[in-house]
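ARCHIVE CARD
CATEGORY: sequence design from structure
SOURCE FIELD: tokenized fold
FIELD CONTENT:
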């Protein structure tokens, strides 16, 4: 998963992109990059780590020009290495062309094979580079024709921001898997994955880029075209963005994320009510559903876990000794309020079950009398091929176990998941969502080779 942002005709373009990336940090914590253009030169800075670690003031100052795009990365194709950090930059017909991609293509293998056969030399192992090679092969026409012809060859999920000279181009796949929003700052258009980035840079939200739409932006001018045959494509917004991924202060898919999560929690309470002394969440992701759950049942909501905000990089890939402390260093239960109590713990989802198991273990050690766990989405049973880094079926705890077996594994007194029907019933446009991770119903054909390291395998 990744966060993307683009700004044109602003003398502080790169600075604003940098600030905007802070708001999108939750979408990708592995690496960050910014490309900018001053009419003559293109500037590019990218580095592994969080946005705050990837750029210092000097680096931001050196990103000159009035056009800039930025990316923060969470790898869902290709390894997490230096050459795979975006934006990816080339020269195309004498002009700089940079790409920032959120999503996963599903026809990577086919396109790659064709391009390699034609002599393309790949520099990275990301599916995003394929888009650049296809653009390099376009003939005749103009920017609009080139982009429409290339983007219509792609399958899977893509929200994209390009920098082409002093134009920024935004595009969203015909199913609209990932969000992409249009904003306005000082009368000039800006693009970002989520509206929380607009709040931070004081831009106003205009609208979402429609599924299958490609926009060409130069300051206050915007031109929009659509990919062919989009009327035959069904919308398939990723429901996991609403459940967990997007920030609660964002509005995506024409709905507010915070509100959606509260509705999910309230529906969960209707489906799995329970008598308890209080409701608590596993912060931060479970907070909003917990609030909806507690309000629905009229139970008190307590903050049972205190979050430590000072977790440095040491804990990202720690040694074995430190790894044992990794989960516990982040959250500490307040035994004073937990001891002897019957509690309902609300969490947004269970993926592998390992974090949930250790959280429950800590609550037991803090003296909880009964622990009832409630999950504000259905059991995750199938991997995602459209951009969420869900592990293989074997690693998904609910894929091969009954709910009772999951409850036994994480050692709770009861476990209740929201039903698929209940989850969809609280969405504004239930028919417009992809729920493949819960239902196994994939709206777009999944790739034959399912490895995230698909293009690395090609080189072995
Ligand atoms: P676990 O109990 O280990 O499955 O961890 C559950 C927590 O990790 C929940 O808050 C999940 O929403 C969160 N999570 C979200 N996305 C992922 C992911 N792609 N892989 C692993 N955990 C995730």
């Amino acid at each position: 998963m990744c966060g993307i942002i683009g700004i044109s005709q602003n003398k502080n373009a790169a600075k604003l992109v940098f600030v905007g990336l802070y708001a999108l940090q939750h979408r990708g914590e592995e690496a960050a990059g910014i490309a900018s253009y001053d009419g003559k030169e293109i500037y590019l800075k990218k580095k592994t780590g969080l946005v705050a670690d990837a750029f210092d003031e000097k680096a931001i100052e050196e990103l000159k020009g009035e056009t800039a795009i930025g990316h923060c990365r969470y790898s869902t194709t290709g390894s997490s290495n230096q050459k795979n950090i975006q934006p990816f930059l080339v020269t195309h017909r004498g002009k700089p062309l940079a790409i920032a991609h959120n999503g996963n293509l599903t026809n990577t293998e086919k396109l790659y094979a064709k391009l390699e056969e034609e002599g393309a030399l790949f520099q990275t192992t990301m599916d995003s580079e394929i888009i650049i090679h296809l653009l390099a092969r376009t003939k005749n026409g103009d920017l609009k024709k080139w982009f429409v012809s290339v983007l219509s060859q792609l399958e899977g999920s893509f929200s994209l921001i390009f920098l082409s000279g002093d134009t920024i181009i935004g595009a969203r796949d015909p199913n609209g898997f990932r969000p992409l929003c249009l904003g306005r700052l000082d009368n000039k258009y800006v693009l970002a994955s989520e509206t929380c980035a607009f709040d931070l840079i004081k831009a106003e939200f205009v609208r979402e880029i429609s599924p299958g739409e490609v926009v060409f932006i130069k300051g206050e001018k915007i031109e929009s075209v659509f990919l062919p045959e989009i009327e035959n494509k069904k919308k398939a917004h990723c429901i996991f963005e609403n459940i967990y991924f997007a920030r609660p202060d964002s509005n995506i898919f024409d709905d507010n994320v915070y509100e959606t999560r509260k509705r999910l929690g309230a529906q969960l309470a209707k489906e799995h009510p329970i008598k308890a002394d209080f409701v608590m969440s596993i912060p931060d992701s479970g907070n909003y559903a917990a609030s909806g759950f507690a309000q629905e049942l009229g139970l008190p909501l307590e903050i049972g876990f205190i979050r430590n905000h000072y977790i440095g990089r040491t804990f990202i890939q720690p040694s074995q000794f430190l790894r044992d402390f990794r989960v516990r260093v982040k959250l500490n239960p307040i035994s004073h309020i937990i001891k002897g109590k019957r509690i309902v713990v609300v969490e947004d989802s269970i993926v592998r079950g390992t974090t949930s198991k250790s959280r429950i273990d800590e609550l037991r050690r803090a003296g909880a009398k009964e622990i009832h766990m409630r999950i504000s989405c259905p059991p995750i049973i199938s991997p995602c091929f459209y951009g969420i880094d869900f592990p293989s079926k074997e690693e998904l705890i609910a894929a091969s176990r009954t709910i009772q077996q999951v409850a036994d594994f994480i050692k709770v007194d009861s476990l209740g998941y929201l039903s698929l029907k209940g989850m969809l019933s609280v969405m504004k446009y239930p028919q417009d969502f992809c729920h493949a991770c819960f239902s196994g119903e994939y709206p777009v054909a999944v790739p034959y080779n399912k490895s995230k390291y698909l293009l690395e395998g090609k080189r072995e």
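CARD ANNOTATION: DSSP finds 17 helices and 24 strands in the chain. The chain has a mean pLDDT of 93.
SHELF: design records, drawer C
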